Amino acid sequence: MTAAATPAAGLGAEERRALVCVLDALIPPSPDGRRPGAGQAGAAAYVENVLRTLPDLRTMVVEGLRELDEQARGLHGRAFASCSEPERAVLVAAQPFGYALVPHAYIGYYQQGSVLEALGLEARPPHPQGHVMTENDLSLLAPVRARSKRYRDC
Amino acid sequence: MSQEPVDVLIIGAGAAGAAFAWSMAETRMDILCLEQGDWVKHDDYPGLRMDWEARQFGDFAFSPNVRCRREDYPVNDAGSPIQVANFNAVGGSTILYAAHFPRFHPADFRTRTLDGVGDDWPIDYTTLAPYYDVNARMMGVSGLAGDPMYPPDKQVPLPPVPLGKLGETLARGFNRLGWHWWPSDSAITTAEYEGRAPCINAGTCLLGCPQGAKASSDVTYWPPAIRKGVRVATRCRVREITVDERGMADGVIYYDGDGKECRQRAHVVVVAGNGIGTPRLLLNSRSRQFPEGLANRSGLVGKRLMFHPYAMVTGIFPERLQGYKGPSGCSIISQEFYETDPARGFARGYSFEMLRGFGPVSTAMLGLTAGRMPHGEGHHRAFDELWDRTAGMVAICEDLPETTNTVTLDPELKDADGIPAPRITYRLSENSRAMLEHAVARGKEVLAAAGAGDFMVQAPLPVAGWHLMGTACMGVDPAKSVVNERGRTHDVKNLFIIDGSIFTTAAGVNPTNTIQALALYIADTMKKNLANLFD
Ligand SMILES: Cc1cc2nc3c(=O)[nH]c(=O)nc-3n(C[C@H](O)[C@H](O)[C@H](O)COP(=O)(O)OP(=O)(O)OC[C@H]3O[C@@H](n4cnc5c(N)ncnc54)[C@H](O)[C@@H]3O)c2cc1C
Ligand code: SF4
To answer: Which residues in chain B (322-381) have CB-CB distances under 8 A to chain A?
Structure first.
């Protein structure tokens, strides 16, 4: 209920690379390979914009990314972004900040053109082209028309 | 703004303010409307961009507390299970509305006499019928004549919106049960109409319509009103209405877009700030004559707040429904459970309004809210179970007026100009709870009859505080109401209220058609009584 806070700074290059991997863990590519992961699809740009306007979430995410990296180095001997997909999935699942990112990951993912196409839609906004719809079949109203007046006079 | 008084000063350029201004314009009086928001530019509408669905969580959110635009005032609705939804701009909340446009029924004006609840209105359906007709022409309403739920003379100028595969699937469900349904009256142009382009079924109505097919009042009433000489001053937020020593309204104090305090005098003041903005302004307009708020000698300003508690029942279907096509909130309506039936265990009733399906973002968020949309492995399978397979309905339940449901001034929260914010105190009545329960059960029944195999339910729907009514109610007795049958406040003879605040009862349909019909009716009675307006 407060006015929007001053925008926070963007992420550094390393953090961004790690964020892309986290997003791919939250929405991985579909098993049939037709839908990209959220990181691959480009959801990070949207999420990063959200983080600019939500400083508390940004702090949580930046700290979480650092912890992920430390854990990855401790467990696998390499940076989080260099771990394999299954390794990253396990690491992200154990991180509370992942949950906080989920809604933003979904919103960022399902607005990407490549994702819309994979869903069978055109990669465009709804306007100005719109959608074509079929003519109404008003014969369906026959049983309703057959009934008498239903409102009360007064 | 000029120091000269204007003849008529309207506060709020939404649905009601626009209709009223257009009707009064023919008098050629000096009419000024102060609006705290601005014009929404065509290019600002989210529907033109790839991130359109995301904007419902940001600058085009239903809740002013999420949007946080400068023109928005915060609303403390922590004390209500239903959150206030609005939009502050030229066009008001019609910028975001779904444009579902039913009329009241004749019985809705007589609930005390017929059903022993609420109060009778001092006017009736036949009083408003000619104004509903004018409004249908001015807004460009589409629909179909012959609905057995309404008097036969109800006409609209345009053919109904497309039902689509989704609408027809649901219609078959209703037919299987032998229940009423009808193509919705929709304030959406289904063909070129009075210079407006036809709807292209893009489905972004709840984020505004860049096509101009949806009848927001900035594209319907305001252009002709302005052509006839009415002026609209935007980014002007009224803090209080002032009174002279005789207790007559003599103008307002407002803040302009730069936050500068200004004064505008007026011979007549007309309030159209909606069911929350209007009582907020009246309660903030305290003076020696009106220590409890302007026109509040009855103590009823801000009381009897009515939302329509909504039940949302979404069915999950085995086949794809192409539900992302078509106007978001308009396809078919059912009023099978509209009129009172004592056997149901509650007074009054509700309408079912069918919703389209959702876009991809909204599908994912709906699934997330319902606990059906995991992240990680399994995400795509869960998404596919919902994507383009959901169809549902909302039940718009009639709320009964209760003096314990209120808008008051928050002692701490303020808007950007330092004006106290409204605070909502609201609880669901037993009648509403019973009605919601009934609606959920019947909703599932008809969705199952249409082929749904699974359901998601939200009742009451928390985001659905978009119908704002009753907080300055109309009646004949000054001790029991705020305005008389002509919209004039009982206490201040040159102060009128024309928005949903004056609803005596709420009915079980969306209110905007009735709000505008009332505003047109009040304007007409003013025009007919100009010589003795203050008698
Ligand atoms: C998401 C959504 C969906 C909806 N769907 C439907 C629907 O399908 N059918 C339907 O009938 N209704 C619907 N509604 C409700 C509909 O929009 C309202 O009933 C209608 O707009 C109310 O008209 P109004 O003129 O009373 O208020 P508004 O249209 O809200 O206009 C009030 C105006 O007054 C201005 N104002 C308030 N206080 C001040 C002040 N102090 N100084 C200056 N300006 C002020 C505000 O900025 C605003 O522009 C919906 C609303 C929303 C938000
Ligand atoms: S569906 Fe029609 S009315 Fe709704 S936004 Fe698109 S063009 Fe406008």
So the answer is: 322, 324-326, 335, 338-339, 359-361, 363-365, 368, 373, 375-377, 379-380
pLDDT tens for each residue of B317-367: 999 999 999 999 999 999 999 999 999 999 999 999 999 989 999 999 999
Tell me if B69 is assigned to some domain. yes
Strand partners of residue B436? none
Indicate if ligand 2 lies below 6 Å from the C-beta of B211: yes
Domain count, chain B: 1
Q: Are A89 and A22 in contact (CB under 8 A)?
A: no
- The boundaries of the domain holding residue B16 are 6-357+389-532
Distance from CA of B509 to the nearest CA of A (A): 14
> Phi then psi for B396, rounded to 5 degrees?
-100, 100
| Residue A6: per-residue pLDDT | 59
The per-residue b/e assignment along B484-505, b for 16 or more CB within 10 angstroms, e otherwise, is bbbbbbbbbbbbbbbbbbbbbb
ipTM of the complex: 0.92
Measured between its terminal Cα atoms, the distance across chain A in Å is: 46
* B22 interfaces chain A, CB cutoff of 8 Å: no
CB-based burial label for A113 (10 Å; 0-12, 13-18, 19+): middle
Name the residue among B39, B320, B405 with its Cα closest to residue A120: B320
Pocket test for ligand 1, best of B274, B306, B415, B520 (most atoms within 8 A of CB): B274
- Whether residue A133 lies inside any domain: the answer is no
DSSP H or E run through B255: strand B249-255
Dist. CA B383–CA B365, nearest whole Å: 10
Q: What are the Cα distances from residue B84, in Å, to A34, B78, B350, B461, B531?
A: 41, 10, 20, 12, 40
Exposed/middle/buried for residue B50 (C-beta within 10 Å: 0-12, 13-18, 19+): middle
Q: Is residue A67 part of a domain?
A: yes
What is the Cα Rg of chain A in Å? 23
Write out the residue range of the structural domain in which residue A101 sits: 13-125
Q: Is B205 in the pocket of ligand 2 (CB under 6 A)?
A: yes
CA–CA gap between residue B311 and residue B461 (Å, rounded): 6
Cα B71-B274-B193 angle, rounded to 5 deg: 90
What six digits make up the tokens of B509? 């349909």
Tell me: the pLDDT tens digits for B376-416? 999 999 999 999 999 989 999 999 999 999 999 999 999 99
Q: What are phi and psi of B220, to 5 degrees?
A: -105, -75
The CATH number for B297's domain is 3.50.50.60
Angle separating helix axes A43-53 and A55-76, nearest 10 degrees: 130
How many whole angstroms separate alpha carbon B319 and alpha carbon B314? 14
Helices A96-109 and A55-76 pack at an angle, to 10 degrees, of: 110
Distance of CA B203 from the midpoint of ligand 2 (Å): 5
- H-run or E-run covering B240: strand B237-243
Q: Are the CB atoms for B268 and B246 separated by under 8 Å?
A: no
Tell how far the Cα of B60 is from the centroid of ligand 1, in angstroms: 14
- Confirm or reject contact between B74 and chain A (CB < 8 A): yes
Cα–Cα distance for residue pair B241/B250, rounded to 1 Å: 8
